[in-house]
Design brief:
Layout (H helix, E strand, L loop, with lengths): L1 H7 L1 H20 L4 H35 L12 H54 L5 H25 L7 E5 H11 L1 H6 L3 E5 L3 E5 H17 L6 E6 L3 E6 L19 H7 L6 H11 L2 E8 L3 E8 L1
Parallel strand pairs: 2-4
Antiparallel strand pairs: 1-3, 4-5, 5-7, 6-7
Helix pairs in contact: 4-5, 6-8, 8-10
InterPro entries: BphY/WalK/GraS-like, HATPase_C_sf, HATPase_dom, His_kinase_dom
Protein name: histidine kinase
GO biological process, one term: cellular response to phosphate starvation
């Protein structure tokens, strides 16, 4: 502690020593009696020692407060301008840390809630597969459909984790949207066949974008179209030079649900009623389109179907 004190006030001790040497030189140059000098120096050293003890006591108390304080109120007794300035800095840092901790806690709670929801959704296809095994009634198409559903839920969670950690790996290139859509239709062909859905693809769209993320985003829209379409209905995918529209003849979306459709964790009436939504798919879709400089618009009417339009800003 003493060495820290001397380091803190070393300038003043250097200054005092310098002044002492200068007085000694003056006494010597003018041939003044040195005994006067030493008497005065003794008095000055005594005063310096008393002041040093007083300042060291203050310094030790201040260091103890700074080393062990837990609350800002404990260092309110530090009143010098610089100490008050440091208190302001510490207060701002504490506030920032508290705000960050609150955000982290909120993100953790949201993530835990979403993982619970996701886990519940994973149980549906797993239960279906388990039932087929137990009854020895393994239908190949049904097994494929449940596996695709599991893969889709897993993709959603992994994509969400990447976004929540602010990680991305975008690679922009010229993409053939028709080719992407065609591959997705082939991927979901089992689901289409299971519900006896017909798919019409018209037009094409050449777009500079990230193929992987664009494919994921469109897959979520197509997956919803399949989920909420009626058996034996039709899904139309129409493209032009600046947009793609995905239209279905499904159950539609309630008007009050449309404004919140892309909110994180929002499932809406259809998601609750049919137990098919995680609340992540469309949220991630909107986030991806924002990153790709694309816009998405949804128009829907109950019992008449839904039209999802993706277009360039």
């Amino acid at each position: 502690m003493i060495w820290k004190f001397l380091k803190e006030y070393r300038f003043w001790y250097y200054l005092y020593f310098f002044m002492w040497v200068m007085f000694l030189v003056n006494f010597c140059l003018y041939k003044l009696p040195l005994n006067y000098f030493f008497i005065t120096s003794s008095l000055n050293v005594t005063i310096l020692l008393l002041i040093s003890i007083w300042k060291f006591t203050q310094f030790k108390r201040k260091m103890t407060l700074l080393n062990y304080f837990k609350y800002l109120e404990e260092i309110d007794s530090l009143k010098s301008p610089t100490e008050e300035a440091y208190q302001g800095v510490i207060e701002n840092l504490v506030k920032e840390e508290a705000a960050q901790a609150l955000v982290s806690k909120s993100q953790l709670e949201n993530l835990q809630s979403l993982i619970k929801m996701w886990s519940h959704q994973m149980k549906v296809p797993l239960s279906a597969l388990s039932l087929m095994v137990q009854t020895d009634n393994l239908d190949k198409k049904e097994v494929q459909q449940q596996l695709i559903r599991l893969q889709n839920y897993l993709d959603i969670l992994l994509t969400y984790m990447k976004f929540s950690q602010n990680k991305d790996d975008y690679r922009f290139e010229i993409c053939d949207v028709k080719s992407i859509v065609t591959d997705l239709v082939k991927k979901y062909r089992v689901a289409f066949l299971a519900k006896e859905l017909s798919v019409n693809i018209e037009g094409d769209w050449q777009l500079k974008s990230d193929k992987k993320w664009l494919s994921f985003a469109i897959s979520q829209i197509l997956d919803n179209a399949v989920k909420y379409s009626r058996d034996g209905s039709e899904i139309n995918i129409i493209m032009d030079d600046s947009s793609v529209r995905i239209l279905d003849d499904g159950i539609g979306i309630l008007p009050e649900d449309l404004p919140r459709l892309f909110d994180e964790g929002f499932t809406g009436f259809n998601g609750h009623e049919h137990q098919k939504a995680t609340g992540l798919g469309l949220y991630m879709t909107k986030q991806i389109f924002d990153q790709l400089n694309l816009s998405i618009k949804v128009d829907s009417q109950i019992d008449q179907g839904t039209c999802v339009m993706i277009f360039k800003d």
